[in-house]
Amino acid sequence: MQNSLQPAELDAAIDEVHRAGIPGVFAEVRDGDQVWRGASGVADVSTGDPVTPDMRHRVGSVTKTFTAAAVLQQVERGQIRLDAPIGHYLPRLVPGARGDSITVRMLLNHTSGLAEYLPSAYPSFKTFPSLSGVSPASLDDNRFRTFRPTELIDMGVAAPAVGTPGSTPGVYSNTNYLLLGELLEQVTGTTAEQYITRNIIERAGLRHTEFPAEPDIEGPHARMYEALYGLIDPPRDYSTYDMSWVGLGAALVSTVADLNRFYGMLLAGGIVDQSSLAQMQCTVPVRALDGTRVNYGLGLHKVSIPGRGTCWGHDGTVWGASTMSLTSADGQRQMSVAMNLVRWNTLDSSGKPQHHPIDDALTTLYRRAMRAGGNGNSGCR
Questions:
Q1: How far apart are alpha carbons 334 and 30 in whole angstroms?
Q2: CB 344 within 8 A of CB 298
């Protein structure tokens, strides 16, 4: 049987990402029963140890799909109403008129108008999302700091609103997903991490996915290098880090194989029912933290690969680690890609990230990964 994955092309594409400047990149691509796993580069720039496709990785905001699916499970059970005000559930955390006007749905799709807490939690990022004046000092200051979710939520709620509740484009904010974690805890009687572990991770049979209990990652993993737009040169390893700074928004550790399994099951109706999945796939325009516009549903991105079609998934970035996971609308084609260097683009005189060859190499890898069959036609619909 012909291999529709064209492994030689995928090998060449992942090698090019490494040659363009990523120390280590690894991926899994699936087309039905066919599977390609590849890796290129090093897990540790000091030792030269190679990166491998089975390594565990901090997957960043891919975590949001897990959190959103958990919320939708509770919607199905009648414990949460999508269009109920968050003030009904968490009046102390979002008090007054704002708690009455922000709904659960608005938290899920980032149209709440609640600000990102990062500039308050990381003082050297006080000008964020503007990159002018940002410094890396807080990354080291907070490496072993443990934040309480409510502490971070209070920072986001206290900050000036970034939009009117329900208005579009929405503005991406981790504050939204920490609130969803508190909501899950209230309605389930257990921590959100425990609920997601039992009802999402274990239900999907994900053997290498977990919320980390310590700053270190258990099991084989790469060093994770943060460049912070050239402000950290050479890039510094942040693979050891207390992930309470992102919690239910971006703290998960997983593997590329587990992510493909999770999204495959989710889009097939194996995690939430079809009516919940339809809600997750209702998108609105949202301004991401880097200023770009994305089509965002309830914990899902709608992504168009030029010439390839529309796919669903999420990307994720934390200090030193980046992940992209996409699944075609019909579930046939999947890719998950992990890298151990982030924010490689240096800034121009106006503070804007400059284009880098890594950007082009990644575009090529994603397009090759998501096409179907040997004829190059789309596997997405």
A1: 5
A2: no
CA pair distance 272, 218, nearest whole angstrom: 29
Q: Decide if 171 contacts 110 (C-beta within 8 A).
A: yes
pTM of the model: 0.96
Closest CA to 62 of 196, 157, 232, 222: 196
Residue 149: partners with Cβ closer than 8 Å, 6 or more residues away: 178, 181, 182, 244, 247, 248
How far, in Å, are 240, 249, 280, 370, 372 from residue 171 at the CA level?
29, 15, 17, 28, 33
CB 140 within 8 A of CB 148: no
Whether the upstream peptide bond of residue 136 has omega within 30° of 0, thus cis, is no
- On whether the CB atoms of residues 86 and 80 are closer than 8 A, the answer is no
- At 185-232, the pLDDT tens digits run 999 999 999 999 999 999 999 999 999 999 999 999 999 999 999 999
One-letter amino acid for residue 371 of the chain: R
Query: Would you say the C-alpha torsion 171, 172, 173, 178 has a positive or negative sign?
Result: positive
Residue type, 17: V
Question: How do beta strands 253-254 and 309-318 pair?
Answer: unpaired
How is residue 247 written in tokens?
Answer: 């919690």
Helix %, strand %, coil % of the chain (to 5): 35, 20, 45
